[in-house]
Amino acid sequence: MNRWSRTAAILVCSLVLSQNGPAIAQAPTAPTPPTLDGLGFIPKPRQVTLNGSTYTVPSTVVIAAQSSDERNVADLLQAFLAARGVHASVGTMISGSAPIRLTIHNVDPLIGAEGYRLKVDATGVSVTANTGAGLFYGVQTLEQLFPARASDGNTLTGVTVDDWPAYSWRGIHLDVSRHFFPVAVVERYIDLAARYKLNTFHWHLTDDQGWRIAIAHYPRLTQVGSCRAGTEVGHDETQTDGKRYCGYYTQDQIRQVVAYARRRYVTILPEIEMPGHSVAALVAYPQLACAPGAFKVRETWGVSTDIACPTERTFTFFQTILDEVMALFPGRYVHIGGDEVPKDAWKRSPFVNALMKQHHLASYDAVQGYFTRRIEQYLNARGRKMIGWDEILDGGVSKGATVMSWRGTQGGIIAARRGNDVVMTPDGPLYLDWAQGDEDFEPLAICCVSTPQMIYDFNPTPAALTPDQAKHVLGVQGNMWTEYIPTADHLFYMLLPRAFAVAEDGWTPAADKRWSSFAERSRKQFARLEADGIPFRIPNPTARITGGESVVAENVHRSLNETELRPSAATGTVALDDLVPDAVIRYTTDDRLPTAKSARYTSPVAFDLDRTPVIHLRAVAVLPTGRTSAPTTITLRR
Fold it and tell me: Which stretches within 174-275 are classed as H helix?
C-alpha cells in the first residue's frame, strides 16, 4: 500500500547530528546508557528504574509458571520467544531457580487487579502480579524491552518497573456491520489492543447495513439480514456500487474469538442495536415494525427512520437474541445501542400512542426510556449490566445503567452527576474513523480530523466533575466505525498509531503524560510494527529552525503539519526528523511534493531569505518498503 499519510501534530523532537572530529586516535567510549524514554514503553508505566545491568536471554531458557494463569501467560511468552529464535520451555520448577519467573502472589494492594512488578537484572527476569491480567501486562512490558527485530538479538536493559492502570475500562471498538472483517483480522485487532494493555473489545455486531452474528432462534437474521445489495460510493448517498455484500460470524466463530480474547485478558463487549439502527433485523422479521414496509438492508450510511416497535413481540425477539448473546459472551456488560433513534414511525403508530397513555409516558423519548428500562431489567435479572450510548439518558435510565458518552463529554458529565457509571468516547478525538490529516493525502474518511496528539491530550475525567462524581468514570475507549474502511490494511492504518494514544489515556494518569515523551517512546513501537509487517500510518517528518528563533506567523491546524515561520535572522538552517527507524527523509525547497527520488536529507537545510524571500520546504519520510508519509510543509518568510 503506497499511500500518502501524515501525522497529526507538530512534534518537538531533538535531532542528533554527527560532527566530524579531529583525525586522531580516539579512546573507545562506553555505550550511551539508555534513557527511560528510549526504552519505548507504551503505555508509560508508573515507575521505572534503570539498574545498570543487562540480561541476554539464552537460546534455550526455562519459564517458571505453576498456576493456570501463570502457564497461560507463559505459553504466550513462549510463542513470542520462539519467533525470536529462543526455545523456551514452561516448567513448574522452583521459581527462584529459573531465569524467567512468572508469579501470581495476590498479596500486593498497591498494584491492584491489573498491576504488576517487573524486574530484569543480570540473573534473569521476574514478573509478579495479583492476577493473570496483571501478569500478562507485565509480560507485554517485558516484550517491549526486546529489540524490535529478532536479528538484533535478545539483550534486555536492566530495569525495575512497578505499574498499574489509571482506569479499569480501556477500550477499543470495531464496527463490522458497515464492513465485515473475518475472524483472523478480528483476532489480530484484539492482539494489538492487548499488546498496549487495552482490556475491552467493543464488537459492534448489528446495524442497518448488516446483521453479523448468527442467532439460532432467528435464522433469517443472517440468511437475509447479513447481505446488502450494494454499498454507498464515496460521500454520495444517491449512488451505490451495486455489488452484493455479505458476511456474518457463526456461533462457533464467536466462541473462537471470545476464547482468543480471554487468553489475552480482553473482555468482549457485544453490541446488539435497539430500537434504532435495526433495519437489517426488520428486513428479516418485518413484523417487528410499527407498520408494514418494504424494508431492505440499508446500502447507504446515515440514520434510518425505520426502527423497531416497542411491542411485546419485539421484546420477546430481543430478549431471545440476548439469551443467545449472553451464552456466547461471558463478560459483565451487554451493549444495547440506543443511539440515533428517530421517532417518526412511533409518532404515526396507534400502538405507540396507546402505549404512552397506558404507561403515562409524556414524550416519545420517554417511550425509548420505557423500552430501554425493560431491556435493562431483563439483563439485570440474568446477572448482566446494560450499557448504551448517551441518548439513553434522554428517556431516563436507572442508576445501574452505564453510559457511553459519544456526543462529546457532556452526556458523560450528566450521567456521572446522576450517579451512573460512564465510559468516555467522544466523537472529537476518540473516533478513529476520522481522518488523520489533510484530505489530499489521506484515504477517504467519514469526517473531520482526529490525530494522535488530539487523542493524547484528552483527559477521560472532565474537570467539571467533583471527586465523588469522577469515581463514576470507568475509563476511555476509541471507536472505529467502518463506513469508509473496507480492508484490513486500511483498518490497521487507521488504528495505528492512534491506538498508542488511546492506550496511554487509559493507563497513564493525566498528570504523568508528556507529549514529547510519548513521541520519543513511539519510535521503538514503530520499529516493532514495521518488523511485524503491520501497515501503520507513517508519521510525517518534523521540522524546527536551528541557530535562531522564529515566530509562527500562521499555524494551520496541527493535524496538517503545515506551518509558516518567520525566522529572527535572514539566514539559518532547518533541521528535519522522523519517528520511524530506517526511514529516509526526502525533501524539496521549491514547493513541489517530494518523491522517493528527491534530495536525501543528511544535515540541516540552509536558507537565505535575503536571496529568496519565501522558501517552501517540504519533506516526506520513506520506508525501505517504499511506503511514504505525507509531506511536512514549512514556509519560511521574512
Answer: 183-195, 220-223, 251-263
Taking residue 361's Cβ as centre, other Cβ atoms within 10 Å add up to 20
- pLDDT tens-place string over residues 22-52: 333 334 444 566 789 999 999 999 999 999 9
* Edge-to-edge strand ranges of the sheet holding 100-104: 47-56, 155-163, 116-121, 124-129, 100-104, 60-64, 87-91
Q: Rounded CA gap, 341 and 355, in Å?
A: 18
Name the one residue in this structure whose C-alpha cell is 519467573. 101
Label each residue of 490-515 as H, E or C.
HHHHHHCCHHHHHHHHHHCCHHHCCH
- Please give the distance of CA 89 from its chain centroid, rounded to a whole number: 33
**Class of the CATH-defined domain 542-637:** mainly beta
Positions of CATH 2.60.40 in the chain: 542-637
Asked if 369 and 394 count as a contact pair (C-beta separation under 8 A), the reply is: yes
| Span(s) in the chain for CATH 3.30.379.10 | 47-163
Residue 548 banded pLDDT, cuts 50, 70, 90 = low
Q: Which is higher by pLDDT, 378 or 634? A: 378
For residues 418-435, average pLDDT: 97
Mean pLDDT of the chain: 91
pLDDT at 23: 32
How confident is the model over 280-302, as a mean pLDDT? 96
Cα pseudo-dihedral 334, 340, 342, 346, rounded to 10: 10
Give the side-chain half-sphere CA count within 13 A for 298: 25
**Amino acid at residue number 273:** E
> 47-163 has which fold?
Chitobiase; domain 2 (3.30.379)
Segment holding 545, helix H or strand E: strand 542-546
pLDDT at position 107, please? 85
Lowest-pLDDT range of 106-115, 177-186, 474-483: 106-115
Dist. CA 411–CA 388, nearest whole Å: 11
Question: Is pLDDT of 59 > 60?
Answer: yes
Count of beta carbons in the 10 Å neighbourhood of residue 239: 14
Q: Are 563 and 587 in contact (CB under 8 A)?
A: no
Q: What is the pLDDT of residues 436-450, one digit of tens each?
A: 988 889 999 999 999
CATH number, domain 169-182+192-419: 3.20.20.80
Cis peptide bond upstream of 275, omega within 30: yes
Which is more confident, 602 or 552?
A: 602
- Please enumerate in sequence order all residues whose Cβ is within 8 A of that of 399, keeping only pairs 6 or more positions apart, or say none: 418, 419, 420
Instruction: Report, as residue numbers or ranges, the catalytic residues.
Output: 207, 277, 340
